[in-house]
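dumping this here so i dont lose it
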């Protein structure tokens, strides 16, 4: 049962009640065969209210609903609101600020902020596959723009290095992966690349010396931006234009919508953006389904605000 919708209005019609959302989630999580989240058994029965199940295994006998073990478990926010927020973050090309989301959902901004972050966490790419073929690598600086800060505060912030560095690797015609790193040095760059790129791939970087050591494990090609060289034709086309295009998107999303992002949350914003980029060719309904598949496991409020 694949629901199809081509617009937010159609989406809202498809998921207009809690029951419709549950039904869809059951389909997505269990493929039509409910399984006990505690012991994994499919020997379960559904109660008459349709919502609650009970495990029939003698050692288990636990009751559960489809949201147990997902980000939706024990949430005071309705599934309809969760779904709509997930739809907007996974489908809308630029994401959404918590203020805007609060307006859409009719919640407080605090609730929308929390929802936004939990969904970002959910969109994280945990796929173990490494990038291969021709992979462009580069780093960029995010945030820290003084543009939106009042003149009276600008003076105080002047000279403060409040930008955060993000490392990225992009497989041509494939996925992008990003990682917030504290500094562009040999150690950080090497471990980020080895975590993202399969050995023996082509690796295209700029002339930064931090790429040289790890470059020995790859077919390393360098583009010389200092002399305004942007594309060079060798055995492959040597450039990092695709990754630079992605950096532009990421900056538009972060600086344009959220204005400033605290470094401790930046990775989640990157994850949200890479999810949309990596699913850019999928239709809206496929993107939403893909996002929803990742609902297992939840991020607690204390983890989010860094107290755990
Ligand atoms: Zn069980």
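and the seq i came up w/
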């Amino acid at each position: 049962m694949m629901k199809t919708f081509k617009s937010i209005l159609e989406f809202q019609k498809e998921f207009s009640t809690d029951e419709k959302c549950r039904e869809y989630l059951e389909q997505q999580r269990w493929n039509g065969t409910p399984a006990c989240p505690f012991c994994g058994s499919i020997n379960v029965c559904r109660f008459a209210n349709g919502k609650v199940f009970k495990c029939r295994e003698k050692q288990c006998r636990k009751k559960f609903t489809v949201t147990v073990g997902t980000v939706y478990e024990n949430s005071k926010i309705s599934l309809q609101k969760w779904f709509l927020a997930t739809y907007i973050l996974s489908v809308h090309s630029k994401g959404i600020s918590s203020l805007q989301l609060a307006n859409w959902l009719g919640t407080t901004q605090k609730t929308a902020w929390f929802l936004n972050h939990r969904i970002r966490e959910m969109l994280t790419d945990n796929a173990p596959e490494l990038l291969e073929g021709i992979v462009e690598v580069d780093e960029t600086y995010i945030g820290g723009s003084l543009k939106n800060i009042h003149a009276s505060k600008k003076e105080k912030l002047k000279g403060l290095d409040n930008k955060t560095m993000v490392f990225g690797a992009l497989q041509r015609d494939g996925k992008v992966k990003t990682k917030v790193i504290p500094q562009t040095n040999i150690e950080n760059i090497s471990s980020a690349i080895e975590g993202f790129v399969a050995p023996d791939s082509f690796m295209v970087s700029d002339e930064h010396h931090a790429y040289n050591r790890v470059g020995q494990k790859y077919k390393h090609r360098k583009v010389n931006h200092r002399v305004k060289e942007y594309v060079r034709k060798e055995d492959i086309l040597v450039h990092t234009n695709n990754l630079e295009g992605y950096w532009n998107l990421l900056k538009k999303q972060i600086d344009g919508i959220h204005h400033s992002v605290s470094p401790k949350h930046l990775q989640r914003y990157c994850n949200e953006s890479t999810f949309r980029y990596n699913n850019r060719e999928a239709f809206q309904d496929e993107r939403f389904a893909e996002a929803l598949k990742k609902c297992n496991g939840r991020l607690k409020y204390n983890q989010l605000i860094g107290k755990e």
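The first helix runs from residue 8 to 14.
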